[in-house]
DUF4829 domain-containing protein (Halanaerobium hydrogeniformans), 172 residues
Amino acid sequence: MLNKNYKWKIFSLLVLTILIFSFTQSTEAGYFANPVEFGEYIYDNYAQENFKEVYDNFADELKIILSSDEYIEFQQDNFEKYELEYTDIEVTNPEEISYQEFKKEFPFLEDEGTFYTVEVSYLIKFRRLGSRERESDKLIYLREKDDHFELFWDPEPILDDLSPESVAEDNG
């Protein structure tokens, strides 16, 4: 016969599993109630090195400029090279901004929508000339279009890394 403590643990585990499954189903369906929820989803995936999922949530304009393979390889190389670890991620302060403000930041923007910035803060641990960690924060840019959110991101670090000049420097 099972004791009460063991039954309680099984019940708690069952409830937790159902909650996780429900959350996973709603996020996989692409529904996020607000920009903060979407930002949390993106950064949780990023911290877990799930770069394909992050890329899949990029805006279409960004996907034209940067391929999935380019983005994923760049991120995997950086995570491996610097032994990156992101923790204590907090997404806050959503702010709606105008199309014009957004377009200044991302000149390749084409489609309309509702545009947001959200603040992301985190603790980043990395190895470069020894182990280090630091608190960091940044703004991320999102567009809500057709009842779903999309991520905008500056592709310049990757594009610069892929330029013929940088390839020549790496090989020379």
